[in-house]
């Protein structure tokens, strides 16, 4: 089993996170880099997870519905395999949770997204403090899990999740979004 060198892994991760906002070129760059890592070592769970997540993102940019469906299925299968191999890996769970979170409800992945984000959110603070989960991912998991709780009408639990996101990563996109959500809720309160 060949490990992906740290500099290549960092470059591939950066390409993935550049792709998340919807940049089609970044999506393809991420897929290519993670495909190389996966082809080099098909047993690398991290490579499978990032390739799967990149492939799901690519589905959004596919021109034809059948291509969208095929890419989404391929990506979901890689993500499911990665979580099955390493269910305690919070980064892998985060990737599956967030990519499933963004999928249309008719694909039936909402419950899985909620479960993954709940698991990551429940361990985010400790994992970020120990260095097992990057702070931006921990804060993003807490923020998005808070949105899911808010959508279910559990405002108190959502607010707690938003507060924790701000504590875990105050200078991260998830932490800033959570702070904005808390400020908006405070402005609405009598």
Automatic annotation (TrEMBL):
Compositional bias of kind Low complexity: 174-190
UniProt key word Ribonucleoprotein: no
PROSITE patterns: TPR (PS50005)
Segments traversing the membrane: none
Keywords assigned by UniProt, alphabetized: TPR repeat
TPR repeat copies, ranges: 139-172
Region (Disordered): 164-190
Protein name as it appears in the record: Uncharacterized protein
Taxonomic lineage from the root: Bacteria, Pseudomonadati, Planctomycetota, Phycisphaerae, environmental samples
């Amino acid at each position: 089993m060949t490990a992906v060198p740290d500099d290549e892994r960092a470059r591939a991760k950066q390409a993935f996170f550049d792709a998340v906002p919807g940049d089609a070129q970044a999506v393809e760059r991420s897929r290519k880099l993670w495909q190389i890592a996966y082809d080099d070592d098909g047993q690398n769970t991290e490579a499978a997870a990032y390739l799967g997540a990149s492939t799901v993102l690519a589905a959004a940019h596919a021109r034809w519905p059948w291509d969208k469906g095929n890419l989404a299925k391929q990506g979901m299968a890689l993500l499911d395999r990665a979580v099955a191999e390493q269910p305690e890996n919070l980064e892998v769970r985060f990737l599956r949770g967030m990519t499933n979170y963004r999928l249309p409800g008719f694909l039936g992945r909402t419950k899985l997204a909620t479960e993954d984000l709940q698991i990551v959110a429940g361990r985010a603070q400790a994992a970020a403090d120990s260095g097992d989960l990057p702070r931006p991912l921990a804060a993003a998991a807490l923020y998005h899990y808070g949105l899911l709780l808010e959508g279910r009408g559990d405002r108190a639990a959502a607010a707690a999740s938003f507060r924790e996101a701000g504590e875990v990563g105050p200078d991260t996109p998830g932490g800033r979004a959570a702070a904005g959500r808390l400020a908006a809720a405070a402005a609405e309160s009598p």
